[in-house]
Design a protein that fits this description.
Radius of gyration: 20 Å
Strand order of the largest sheet: 3-2-1-4-5-7-6
Helix content: 40-55%
Number of domains: 2
Shape: globular
Strand content: 5-15%
Number of helices: 14
CATH topology of the largest domain: Rossmann fold
Order of helices and strands: HHHHHHHHEHEHEHEHEHHEE
CATH architecture of the largest domain: 3-Layer(aba) Sandwich
Structural class: alpha/beta
Distance between the termini: 10 Å
Number of strands: 7
């Protein structure tokens, strides 16, 4: 068994099967498929744009990049009608899209455990920054009984609002959830969101109980040699989270198709290693419970807790490597010792 699959299964007991490539698949993807796509990005984009599948259309025709509609299409691979033609089916099995599905499965299990750990009778506010249509969180909230849970999705995409409202109705959460349209960059922004939630629900929240940040860290500090913007967001979330509250955040690591994404799709992301993400989370004051890659080795999943006692990590300049910007993975990143057996 893939060592990362084993880790997540043993630690979180994830019911939905996690996806991993065989050694042959990894070699073919990295040295054949990725090499061709990186070398001939415009030709590859043209081939995929011939598909009538929704995912291919959103990515290669509409050029929506990492929108919540793209993610929703990635997740819908079990629906035979959503798989589309053979081109779309092939796309559905690409490493990055398998990694996105792994992220969803792990993120939902993490959120469920966090909700189950909340004190009974105490109102908990779940805040999803870049929440999109809210299906990731709403699906979990609806299946955790006996908890007084409220939900707020923050998204700057106006089209997310209608979709989010439909999702909340589907899960019976229309009176316990809402969408805050806009962006959050600092403490005052998040305080305004928590205050708005309190007024809307008539609940005196003592801060966010659980904050969820999936698919957004990649768009902070693009083109910068620092993590200043992401660090500011992490500090702001920490300041607006109640004691023993949680942070769930993910980050795309370095991989071999970045050159294609940039040249073929004009899709730019800020990539960070597990170690770099962990350093920023700790420096913002969070105590890390887990920070490790999902089984495809492309996305880091991190769970942090706000301790009652302040914990702040301070790295000297020689201890934290300078971030690499939008480069394909050329050498395997340093992994934890138990993950060595996955290759």
């Amino acid at each position: 068994m893939n060592a990362l699959v084993q880790f997540w299964q043993e630690r979180y007991g994830i019911a939905r099967p996690l996806e991993a490539d065989s050694r042959l698949q990894r070699l073919l993807n990295r040295y054949v498929v990725a090499a061709l796509m990186n070398r001939f990005p415009h030709a590859a984009t043209k081939v995929f744009s011939l598909s009538n599948g929704e995912l291919a259309r959103l990515l290669f025709v509409e050029r929506e990049g990492g929108s919540f509609r793209v993610l929703r299409a990635m997740y819908d691979h079990e629906n035979a009608r959503a798989r589309g033609d053979w081109i779309n089916k092939l796309l559905m099995q690409s490493p990055a899209i398998k990694a996105a599905r792994n992220r969803r499965a792990i993120a939902q299990r993490m959120l469920q455990q966090c909700l189950e750990a909340q004190p009974a009778g105490s109102p908990t506010l779940v805040v999803a920054i870049g929440g999109g249509d809210g299906s990731l969180e709403a699906e979990v909230i609806a299946r955790v009984p006996g908890r007084d849970v409220y939900y707020c999705a923050i998204d700057k995409d106006d089209r997310a609002v209608a979709d989010n409202e439909a999702v909340l109705r589907r899960y019976g959460l229309q009176t316990r959830g809402f969408v805050f349209v806009g962006t959050v960059a600092g403490k005052s922004d998040l305080e305004a969101v928590v205050d708005c939630a309190g007024r809307r629900f008539g609940v005196a929240f003592d801060g966010a109980g659980i904050s969820v940040c999936h698919g957004i860290a990649e768009y902070y500090d693009i083109g910068s040699t620092t993590n200043e913007t992401l660090a500011g967001l992490l500090r702001a979330i920490h300041s607006c989270t109640r004691a023993e509250g949680s942070l769930l955040i993910s980050q795309t690591d370095y991989h071999d198709r970045v050159k294609y994404l940039e040249r073929g799709l004009s899709w730019y992301m800020r990539l960070r290693s597990s170690e770099e993400l962990a350093a920023e989370v700790e420096k913002a004051g969070w105590r890390i419970s887990v920070c490790e890659l999902e089984p495809m080795g492309l996305i880091t999943m991190c769970l942090g807790v706000k301790s009652a006692a302040e914990q702040v990590r301070i790295d000297g300049p020689s201890q934290l490597e300078s971030p690499r910007l939008q480069r394909p993975l050329r050498a395997a990143a340093r992994r934890r010792r138990w993950a060595r057996g996955r290759h």
